[in-house]
Each structure stands twice: as C-alpha cells, then as structure tokens.
Records
---
Amino acid sequence: MKRTGKYISVCLCAVMIASMFMCGGCQKQEKTKITKKKQIELWHYWDIPGNQQHLEELVESV
C-alpha cells in the first residue's frame, strides 16, 4: 500500500510539473513596437518669443 501511494504521488507531481511547463509555453510572445521619432522643421517666425513658448508647450505635452 505504501508503494502505491508513493507511486501515485510521484506521477501526480510529474503531471503537475509537465502541465506547468505546457501552460507557460502556450503564451503569446510580446512584440515590441518600434516607434519612429517625428521630425519637425521650423521655417518661419522662430524669433517671436510667443511662438517659442507655444512650441515648448507642444513638445512637453508629447
């Protein structure tokens, strides 16, 4: 009787470990998204302080 109980517990432990590995292997792999940095070109009116401040606010909000 002792051998049967030990055999069952060893088999149960092996099944539990195998199911743990199977559940871990079924997860989807996360794909990393590569975001491109935006490039802006400033053409006009950069010498006006109000425009400089407005641009700084826009850049900080992103």
---
Amino acid sequence: MKAGMTMVDVAFEVHCECLPCDYGFSLFRALANELDWLEEDADAGVHPLHGTASTNGKLCLGKRARLTLRLPERRVAQAMDLAGTRLELGSGLDIGPGRLRELVPFATVYSHFVSTGTADELEFLGQAAALLKAAGLPDTMIAGKAHATSTPEGDVCGFSLLLHGLTPAQSLAVQESGLGEGRKIGCGIFIPHKSVVAVGAA
C-alpha cells in the first residue's frame, strides 16, 4: 500500500437466496468482470459474506447481508457503479445501493480468514507473527477456527485471527494493509472487534 493512501469500505445491499459455501474465488471473478481494475489493484480487497450454511453446501444470505469492498478512497466512485448490477453467482446476486464506511481504530480487530500458506496452526502463528513484526505491529494475537477455500491454483488454507492491544495508528494500519494472502477472495481483511473473546468457533 502506498504511503498516505486512505482506505475505506464500500458496503452494498445484496439480494440473493443462496450461494455455494465455497464462493470466494467465484465472487471475485464475477466482481472483476464488472470492475475492470479490481484484479490489478493490489490494495483492493473483498470482505467475506456472512450468512447461514445449510446442509447441502449452500450459504443462505439474510436481508442484512452486505457485499463489502475494502478499497483505496480513489476507487469509491468507480465501485459505486456496481449498484443495480446482477452477478451470475449461486441463485443470482443482485447488488443494491452502496454506502461509504470509514475505518474505525479499535484496539481489537478480527479477520474471519487469514492465510499465510500453511494449514498447520503453529506454523501459521509463527508466520503471522513474522508478518506483523515486519510491518512494525505487535504480535499479540489469538488464532481460531481453521478455514479453507478453493481456487484454480489449489486450496487456500488459514485460520481466523484476532489481534488485540493495538494503538489507534496500529489498528488502522493493519485494517488498511491486511495480513497474508488472498485479499481478493476474502482473506486477511480485519474489522473492529469489541473485546478479546474466544474465536475458536468463528
């Protein structure tokens, strides 16, 4: 990420009955078909969607579900063009109006899925600590549930991760830069978390 760049979230209303549970790469490709700059912009990321997993491998999205992109501020106007489009994904994902959200510097932040290239938890913690230290950030963290998603290049593995004890500047830094691999498919993107809690089920 370039020095001085401001990152923000753009959250869109979505209407979709269901998606495949392993939707990450397909969602990225569908978005990249609409936003021709998304694939090449290294700073742009796609938040994971939240819903309820069914027993038949589908993810059911509720009325409050949002499709959220983490983007350089200069991309906001272009991203807003997504409103009114339909992505051919699952039962069909209709994108509604978008809303700009500034990043908030909480002392504790959480990512649903961080990937450093290993499925071994101890290796993951060591690699995550090294990445944080290289970025000048503290490695006070708690790893949670293991996750995996598929791409044409192979499976991407990782864990949920909570970082705590951050200063406002550190919190914004890790939210802006993310951590690890797979930013386009929902990995390594941190959001504020109100407290340090068990993340094993997340």
---
Amino acid sequence: QHFSSKLDLYLAVLQQHVDILVSGVRQALRTTTDNRRRLRAAVQAFFDFIEHDSQGYRLIFKNDYVAEPQVAAQVKVATEACTDAVFDLISRDSGLEAHRARMIAVGLVGISADCAQYWLDSDRPISKEDAVEGTVAFAWGGLSHVPLAR
C-alpha cells in the first residue's frame, strides 16, 4: 500500500496496534462473569500486549508524534475504547450513575496501562505474573468498595 506521507504511514501502523490492544481487552472482559477474574484478565491483556508488542505499546502510549492532532486523536480513541469496554460492564453490574461508573473505568484502564508501562520501562524487574497480581490486588482493593450486583 502506498502512503502519501510519513504521517499517513505512522497512522496506519498505529491503528493496527490500537486494534490489537482494544481487541485483547474486550476479549479479556468476556472470559468470565466473575468480577475479580474479569479484572485480572483485563490487566493481563495490557501486560500481554506490552510483552508481545512492546513497540506497538510505545507507539500508542509513548510516541514522538503525540503533538500531531491526528495521532493524539487516534491514541484517545484507543484509550476511550478500552475505557468504554470496562465502563459497559461496570454500569451493567453496579447500577452506578454513569459518571461514577466512567470514573472507575478510567481509573482501571489507567492503572493497568501505567503499571504495565512501568514494568516494561523498568526492564521487567519482577515476573509478569507477579506484576499482574500486584496490579490486580491494588485495583481490587478499591473495587471491593464499589457496590457490584454480582
């Protein structure tokens, strides 16, 4: 395929990685109806993505074109898509008002992405399993205070 500019090529490659990440998170959330296991699967999806596609992760979350409006918009779409998937479940399972459910979803995606990024940037100082478990334990501690119906 021919691209008219370096930016167009970058956007096409970025979109491929965004699709993989978002698909992984959505799949993870559908693996079970148990909320703690669901949380673990979603966190695992971020760590798996970073482990198997660290360049893609960097393209999405640590790119040199972040000031470029088209790139910033595409990164926002990726983050929002992950947040939307989590939000849908929280809204359905908790009955919380939409803004409260959205804040929780934003926090969970942020915790997952930031912890996975730290793990990668720190040269994977602990096993992926330990990193995922630590992230889940931290997130679940907060989630255990949300009135979930399930």
